[in-house]
Amino acid sequence: MSVDPGSAPERFEAALADLDVPVTYTDPAGFDRTLETIAREPAIGTSLPFPSVSLPDWVDDDPTPASLDSAVTGITAASIGIADYGSVVLPATAAGSEQVSLFPDLHVPIVRAEDVVADMSTAIARLGPDLRDGGSAIVATGPSATADMGALVKGAHGPKDVHVVVLETRGESDE
Amino acid sequence: MSETDRGAKADRIRHLLETEGEAVEANTLGFNQGRYESVADLEDYEALKDEARAIKEDAIERLPELIDEVTETVEENGGTVYLADDAADANRYIRDVASEKDAGRVVKSKSMTSEELEVNDALAEDGVDVVETDLGEWVLQVADEAPSHIVAPAIHKSEDEIAQLFNEQFDPEEPLETAEELTMFARERLGELIRDADVGMTGANFITADSGSIMLVTSEGNARKSAVVPDTHVAVAGVEKIVPSVEDLAPFIELIGRSGTGQDITSYISLLTPPVESPVVDFDEPDVAFADRNDDRDFHLVLIDNGRMAMRDDEQLRETLYCIRCSACANSCANFQSVGGHAFGGETYTGGIATGWEAGVHGQESAAEFNDLCTGCTRCVNACPVKIDIPWLNTVVRDRINREGDDGQFEFVYEELVPDEEPGGLDPQKRLFGNYETLAKLGSATAPLSNWMAGLGPVRSLLERVVGVDSRRDLPEFQRETLREWYEKRGSRVDPIDADREVVLYPDTYTNYVDVDRGKAAVRVLEALDVHVRIPDVGESGRAPLSQGLIATADEQASRVYAALAEHIDAGRDVVVIEPSDLAMFRREYENLLPERSFERLRDGSYEILEYVYGLLENGGDPTELRDGGEGPPIAYHAHCQQRTLGLDRYTTAVFDDLVYDVVESDVECCGMAGSFGYKREYYELSMDVGERLAEQFTDPRAEDRLVVASGTSCEEQLGDLLDRDAVHPIEVLDPRSRLR
After folding, report:
1. Span B564-583, mean pLDDT?
2. Domains in chain A, ordered, with CATH?
3. Cβ contact A158–B190 (<8 Å)
4. What are A158-172's pLDDT values in tens digits?
5. What region holds the 4Fe-4S ferredoxin-type domain (chain B) (predicted)?
6. Cα–Cα–Cα angle for B158, B677, B685, rounded to 5 degrees
7. Whole-model pTM?
8. Domains of chain B with CATH codes
9. What is the pLDDT of residues B302-317, one digit of tens each?
């Protein structure tokens, strides 16, 4: 809904900048290296539904309550990015992506460039069938925060930091 | 209200002003400012609000059908739906669920609906440990206090107070000081309580009938943890939270955060379709991979009626059900900004819309406690994302409270009421202010004797004792010669044949009997622009009785005003109004008092005086006579709250701009005087506290030497009391005979 001009990816980046959320662009070749520079160990994650990339070995992709407890970084896939708000849509999965995106101090959502849509109504329209099919998702915008203790503090119950990774796959089709 | 009651009420308000006022003010002003900034970025804010309103109207209309649909959908998903008649019924069900689960602890994310149920107390009876996981709500649980705001329950508490509370209660090794330390302490402690909880309880901001999803609007992440960590999730929600489909959520997602805390969006919008696929987080099995679990999750949606279906059948209260509990009405309310929800609320709900909720779910008595704190300034009207006319709701409830003990004979049937037949037991204070026109007539006819008498000590203390008129306020001085009498004697200076336009200048009670000067100024300005002026014999607009909740009297006066003006409108004359609160009657409130067609004709044919002057100048009017030649005095301008709601203040500033005046405009919501409100003994201090925010702007070095200009009668009086300079109406600045220029 913002009146800022520019393409969806440009507006996505600008909105994330307003939120003080860093964003890094990468392609399948540079993916592992990009994650290395962003993630702090120990890192956990849930397997990515994108054909061209998978989580590197040093990321525990089979999390348990114990690893959830000790992880510093959580890496999960985002199904949609919303340009106007700098939001990412995080689908909940049986493998625990909801928890992985919530418990660790740093959350790294991976969103494909072509999944960045312009606005909220487009994102919700896309979510409708998933939800009617029993799916759940979180529209997450920046880190967890509270102002209940008298000043704005990041990391109330959830992550203190979010670092968005935009995966540019140049025409990779859906899995 | 007796003198003792008034005194007790005044004491309570003073206490809240002293103890909670500062923190509430800082927080609500921040939220409110954030809203202004955030909605300014929206391309089509009004269209989004219309869309949101239409969805709620449709959903409430089809509510029984949607309840059936959501029940079916949730049950198909494997969850359970329970439709509870009232709080006791809901609590019984929730206790049964907890007991079946053998629950020792329930973790709960903030929900006003669960506050309405007082479910914590109900569960505690069974020995269940209920832990609030929203940080603000947890602070209140530790302090054993009630929420003072719908969205930010602990806004009345400062960082220092919370630190002191935590240090006393928990005795940490290192005393906690900063917000960061307090937050991290709470995060850790609550995190541990969540990990071995048996049941998670949440509310629901919205429920979608088509998918059975619940939408939760949060920033902390505690709702996500509460819903997902334990294997059992109980969501409690009023039936009005259901919308037809997932797609209907979009406008609300865009509006709710902006309207409430002034954020474009909150950190998390959870769209959960329970029972969710997410694995249970069981720390008793720390090494079992989530992917290997096969959880059997249990989900209960407890839908609560508790008076809502009756509200749906009540033509006036029905609007309340459109409320999305965003708190914009509280944040934009000048009185709320001063005292917060512990004064401006009933058993559960706080803020502008609380009157509707309390009247609907707890009954009129709960609403009566704070209903008078709504001054009808209407600043919440444009703030509400679903366009609820909250001041009207409050007026309706006030009217019903006035009629209590009247055998309910007049309830819900205003149109059939006999004019001026307010109930016999009506509070004499309300009767006095509601009949201001009669008083003004008498006062003017007997001036200056009436003014002299009104100034006498014994009269003032009698007025204070019997009707609660605070003796610290100066009373208006009635003029012996009314505006109409002056004009009849003087006659018109513009021949109707030569006139560009013909105007009916509405002689509102205050202009006609008290501030006759601004009426004379209006005549001279209009004539300087070649307008032929008429001042007919038209009575009070009904604003005074309406503000006291005397709808029948207001209704009768509205009909009389319309009857007196209809002929002029037919003749193509424009109705011009000096007092913004009277214009707001014509443009807003008359919609509820007159037949539709009559309302529309008067609305479309009436103008605020500076709006009209602006139109004349834009259409080639010659401003020479209004302009001094040089630059006029620098101006500090305070527009009127109802005028701003109607978007009319811009005409005044535009005219001043055109005539090369340097203007600083106030941006507070209301002056605090608000008609009769500031005269009332029980509210005098609150009125002054609200006014202080305006006074600060006009005693600022940028404004302290400026000419103080205000559009409303009450604003002028309040500014006169707050500052050591008198305020004038904008039309007096433009008056060709003015000495202000």
Report:
1. 97
2. 8-167 (3.40.50.10420)
3. no
4. 999 999 999 998 765
5. 366-393
6. 40
7. 0.95
8. 55-304 (3.40.50.10420), 483-734 (no CATH)
9. 999 999 999 999 999 9
